[in-house]
Write a structure and sequence with these properties.
heterodimer, A: 2 domains, B: 256 residues, alpha+beta
C-alpha cells in the first residue's frame, strides 16, 4: 500500500539535523557581541579604543614645564605643540627620569617647516638653508620656544595668508595693503590689541575709481556719488578680489 | 509495524524543536549582551558624539609632521607605501595638468621642483580617511570587520578581518592599506583611542599651523563648528555621495 507520508520521514530528520547544525554552529562561530549595535562585533570598538597612547598632549607637558610653556605661549610658536619637535612623550610623562624625549639640536628639524618651498603660503617665515648661516645650528641664534629675534614679520601675508592669496590673483594684486589700510605701530607685534584700520568711506575706492580721479587709464571708473548711492563699495565688491560682485 | 515508528519521531522532533529552540535562542542572545570594554571603564557614551575633521588648506605648510606623528602614534609601518594620513603637494601650472606628488607622505619634506617649472598656484593638501557617512568600504566588507561606530568613526576590527582587500579597492580616497604584519586592512581611526579619552588625534595635536581642526559637528562649543561656519567648505569627490566627514576649506577645483 502506498503511504506518501513515509517519504517525508527521512527528509524531516535530515532537515532537523541541518537546522540543529546551523543553530549550534552559529552559536560557536559568530562572536559573542556580533550584531549588538550593527553588523559588527561590538567588542571591537573597545579593542580599538584600548590602544596605547604615544603623544601625551601639551597640557600634560605644562604640569611640569610651565615656565617653558608660558614662554612659548608668548611667542610665534604658541600654536606649535611641544611634541611636534620633541617627539611622542607619553612614555616620558609616565617615567620622567627613565625616558627622555628628543631634543633636536641640528638644522634638519627646523627646515621641515621653515625651509623655502614655493608651495608654502607666501609670507610664512622661510629661509634658504643653503644661504642662511650655513653650518650653524638654528639654536645658536634662535630660541625655539621664542624664535623671533628682534623683529616681527615684515609682510602682512605672514598672518593674512588667505587675503593675500586672493589678492594675488586679482586686479588688485599690485596694490600694497597700506593703500587702503593704515597699519598702526605695534600691530605687527601685538595684533590682537592694536588693530589695523579699515576704510570707512567710499572716497578710499573713489581715489582711484571715481570718474574724476587722477589715476592711470584702464582703471574701471564710476561716479562714486551716484553709483548705487545707498550702498558702500564693499557691500558688493570684495576689495581683495574686486572682480567678484556679491 | 515498522512504518509507525517515524511518525513518532516526527512528533518527537516537533516537540524537541518547539521546546529547545527558544532555549538556544535565549542562550545565543545572552552571549550577545556582552558589554563594551569602553562602557565599563568610563562614562563615555558614543551616542553623544559625532566626530569630524576640518582642514584649512591655506594654513598647511607641508611639513609632514602629521603623517610622522600618525606613524608614531599608531605604529604604522615606516615603509613608503603605508600611510593613515599623508600630505600631497599640488602644483598647478599656467597650462595643462596639475602636478601632484607626495614623496613618503611628505614626512621627509618635498624635493625641489624641476628647474623651470612654472607655477600658477601651489599648495599642500593633507589627506586621510574621510570617515564617510555612507562608507563604500563598510558596504563591501563581506564579514562585517569594518563598520561605522556609533560615534561616527569608521573602524576596522583587526581580529575579524580576513584580509580580502575588498575595502581597499572600494575606497575612492585610497585611505586604506593592507598591514604587512597582520595582513589585515588598516586605516585612520581619528585616533579613536585618544578621542574617546578626550585627547586630540595625534595629527591634530602636532599640526604647528592649526591646519587641522578636530571636533564634533553637533556640539556648539566645538572648534569645528566655527570652522564650518566661517569657511567655504568642500569635501573630496562629492559626486560619489559618500558623505565624507573630513571638510576642506580653501580647496582648489583640482583637489580630488
Amino acid at each position: 500500500m502506498f503511504r506518501p507520508l513515509h517519504q517525508l520521514v527521512p527528509l524531516t530528520i535530515i532537515f532537523a539535523i541541518a537546522v540543529t547544525a546551523f543553530v549550534v554552529g552559529r552559536m560557536y562561530l559568530v562572536p559573542e557581541t556580533f550584531g549588538e549595535y550593527g553588523h559588527y562585533r561590538a567588542d571591537a570598538v573597545g579593542e580599538v579604543a584600548s590602544q596605547e597612547i604615544a603623544y601625551a598632549g601639551y597640557q600634560v607637558c605644562y604640569d611640569c614645564h610651565d615656565d617653558i610653556y608660558d614662554e612659548k605661549m608668548e611667542s610665534n610658536h604658541s600654536g606649535v605643540s611641544c611634541e611636534v619637535c620633541h617627539g611622542p612623550a607619553a612614555a616620558h610623562t609616565e617615567a620622567p627620569d627613565e625616558v627622555t624625549p628628543d631634543i633636536p639640536h641640528g638644522r634638519s628639524d627646523c627646515v621641515l617647516c621653515h625651509g623655502y618651498n614655493p608651495s608654502r603660503p607666501s609670507g610664512f617665515p622661510q629661509i634658504l638653508p643653503e644661504l642662511h648661516n650655513t653650518g650653524k645650528p638654528c639654536m645658536v641664534c634662535h630660541n625655539p620656544h621664542a624664535p623671533v629675534l628682534d623683529h616681527a614679520p615684515t609682510e602682512c601675508s605672514a598672518c593674512h595668508r588667505k587675503i593675500s592669496s586672493q589678492k594675488m590673483v586679482s586686479h588688485h594684486a599690485l596694490l600694497e595693503c597700506s593703500q587702503c589700510h593704515t597699519v598702526a605701530e605695534g600691530h605687527r607685534t601685538n595684533p590682537a590689541s592694536v588693530r589695523a584700520d579699515k576704510p570707512e568711506s567710499k572716497d578710499v575706492c573713489g581715489s582711484c575709481h571715481d570718474k574724476g580721479a587722477e589715476s592711470s587709464r584702464g582703471i574701471p571708473r564710476v561716479d562714486v556719488e551716484t553709483h548705487n548711492a545707498r550702498y558702500l563699495c564693499w557691500d558688493c565688491h570684495y576689495p581683495h578680489q574686486p572682480e567678484v560682485v556679491r | 509495524m515498522k512504518n509507525n515508528k517515524p511518525q513518532m519521531n516526527r512528533r518527537e522532533f516537533i516537540d524537541t524543536v518547539s521546546r529547545k529552540v527558544p532555549t538556544w535562542l535565549a542562550f545565543v542572545s545572552a552571549f550577545g549582551a556582552g558589554e563594551l570594554i569602553l562602557a565599563k571603564d568610563s562614562d563615555y557614551n558614543p551616542e553623544d558624539h559625532d566626530y569630524a575633521m576640518g582642514i584649512e588648506i591655506h594654513n598647511c605648510i607641508g611639513c609632514g609632521r602629521c603623517a610622522d606623528a600618525c606613524k608614531n602614534e599608531n605604529k604604522v609601518p615606516r615603509e613608503h607605501s603605508y600611510f593613515r594620513t599623508w600630505v600631497e603637494r599640488y602644483v598647478i601650472p599656467p597650462e595643462g595638468e596639475a602636478i601632484v606628488d607626495s614623496p613618503n607622505g611628505g614626512i621627509d619634506g618635498f624635493p625641489k621642483l624641476k628647474e623651470g617649472t612654472e607655477i600658477l598656484r601651489s599648495f599642500f593638501v593633507p589627506k586621510l580617511c574621510n570617515h564617510c557617512a555612507e562608507a563604500p568600504c563598510v558596504q563591501v566588507c563581506p564579514v562585517g570587520a569594518t563598520f561605522t561606530s556609533r560615534d561616527g568613526v569608521v573602524l576596522v576590527d583587526e581580529s575579524y578581518c580576513v584580509g580580502c582587500r575588498y575595502c581597499i579597492q572600494a575606497c575612492p580616497y585610497g585611505a586604506r592599506y593592507l598591514h604587512p604584519e597582520t595582513h589585515t586592512a588598516d586605516k585612520c581611526t581619528f585616533c579613536y583611542h585618544r578621542i574617546t579619552k578626550g585627547l586630540l588625534p595625534a595629527c591634530v595635536e602636532v599640526c604647528p599651523t592649526g591646519a587641522r581642526i578636530f571636533g564634533e559637528k553637533g556640539r556648539r562649543s566645538s572648534p569645528l563648528r566655527r570652522f564650518l561656519r566661517f569657511n567655504d567648505i568642500t569635501v573630496l569627490k562629492p559626486g560619489l555621495n559618500t558623505q565624507p566627514k573630513v571638510y576642506y576649506a580653501g580647496a582648489d577645483m583640482e583637489v580630488r
